[in-house]
Each structure stands twice: as structure tokens, then as C-alpha cells.
Design goal:
Protein name: D-3-phosphoglycerate dehydrogenase
Keywords: NAD, Oxidoreductase
Distance between the termini: 13 Å
EC number: 1.1.1.95
Helix content: 25-40%
Number of helices: 12
Largest sheet: 7 strands, parallel
Family: Belongs to the D-isomer specific 2-hydroxyacid dehydrogenase family.
Shape: globular
GO molecular function: NAD binding; phosphoglycerate dehydrogenase activity
Order of helices and strands: EHEHEHEHEHHEHEEHEHEHEHEH
Amino acid sequence: MNILIVDDIHEVLLQKLGRAAIAYSYQPDFSRADAEKAIVDYDGLIIRSKFQVDKEFIDLNPNLKMIGRAGAGMDNIDEAYANSKGIKLIPANEGNRDAVGEHMIGMLLSLMNNLNRGDREVRSGEWKREENRGHELKGKTVALIGYGHNGQAMAKKLSGFDVKVIAYDKYKTGFSDLYATEVSMEEVVRRADVLSFHIPLTRETRGMVDDEYLFHFRKPIFFLMGARGGIVKIPAVLKKLDEGKIIAAAFDVLPVEKFPALAEEAWYEDLIKRDNVLLSPHVAGWTFESYYKLSEVLADKVIAYEYQ
């Protein structure tokens, strides 16, 4: 193969491809327009999140054989169309699973113990103990939606907290293990104290978490969204926060990301004014370590594909 790399990646990927005698051109400053002009000369593409690899882009090169993504999920790639053209799609989901698990547990502990609010109040001269009484994670039931690489990593990291971890995955069966018990969605809505999402963004999951979805939960829950923002309808979460059905919510991802577009959303001002909402800028899977591991995992998979 001869691979066009259009996004910033760790040099370990370049080193591994070089040692495997796989030709590449590393162009991290390429725009989509640049890539459109160049892609015809390559049969492989590696990208992170710079632009959408849609039907129009794919059709620019009928000889494209492989698209690799140095990240988890393939939601910026038209998977269905790529598959119909026989293009091999290679994600690197394993590379940031530990980072995501640690980050989301950190957000959960912060929410349960009012850490951000307490810090802010002390800094402003307020000493409120009773108002910041927290919840213990021990003894809670944590429900994971999706039990792929990220879900499994989250379950393993929760194992030291003396919680019960249950998991629902529409596309898997028989996956109960040492860290989680497979359950139906009916059991999730009945038993969950904490709800955490670990599924990709697809046509089926876009907007899945709405009023109807959240209505069925029997107990007040802590809500964690570290998968893809397009899965959740924010007004539905705000409504359940008002009703007390959601105790607190953490978002590393949102349906709209980056400014100024985010600030223009109708729900944005309501979201950010709440003490029981914690936000981070889509960095759960973006640690110094995952930056290396994503590229390493992708390189190994690309090499395996080339020499299969």
C-alpha cells in the first residue's frame, strides 16, 4: 500500500510503517481540499477527525483499499458506503479505552461528591458542609450501555469500588465476565443507579437517549455520556434533571462541539448554569498515553492487513 496520512498522529505509527516497508505520505496540515486533490495517488488513508470521509470523498479514488482511523469509532466515515466498495475499515478502539474509563469514573466521583461545586465555594469564601454531602459509589449498580472495548475497560476499572456492574449490548450475547453481568434493557431501567454509555454513533443510535428512553428508569440515576454527543438529546436530560429522575449528569461529548456553534444551541445556557452538570471538551480518550497507544494499535492493524 501507499498511504496518505492527513491528520496529526504519534510518530510511532510512522516508525512502524517504515519498518514494515509500507509507503506513506504524512501530511498533517492537509485540508479536505488538499486531500481531495491527492487521494487519487494512494490506496490507503489514515485520519482522526479532521473531516468527514463521505461518499463524495470515497468516490474520488475507485482504487481506495483501506481507511484507518486513529481513534475509537468510525462515525466520521461513511461506513456503509465504504463497505459496499470493499474498503477495509480499521479503527483503533483499544488505544484509548483506559483513558475513557478513567476519565468517566473521575467525572462520576466528582458529581457524587460535589467536588467542583465545593472547590468553587471554598475559593469564594463559602463553607457549606451539609449542602455538599456526597453519595458513596460502593453498593451502587452501574449500568453500561455497550460492552465493547470501552465498556469492558470501564467495568474492569470499576471492580475495585464494590459496585455491581451490569451491561446491555444489543449486538452481543453471552458476554458476562468477571467484571460485568449481561442483562436485558428491562433490567437496566429497573436496577441502574449509574448509567454510562459506551456505544458508537450510528443511524440507529443518533438521538436514542430522549424523553421516552429516560422515562422508563425506575430510580434516580447519575448519567454519564462519554461515547458520542449525537446519541443524546440534551433537552431530555435537562428535563429529567428538573424532575429529579437524573441526580447529576456528566458530558465529555455533546451533540454540538466547539465554539461559537455550541454557544448558539438553545439548550446551552440552561446546561452550563447547573451545579449538577459536569462538562469536559471531548478529552476523555485524549491523554498523553492514548495519543501514543492509538497510533501504535492502528499501525499494528494496518501492517497485519497489508501482510495478511
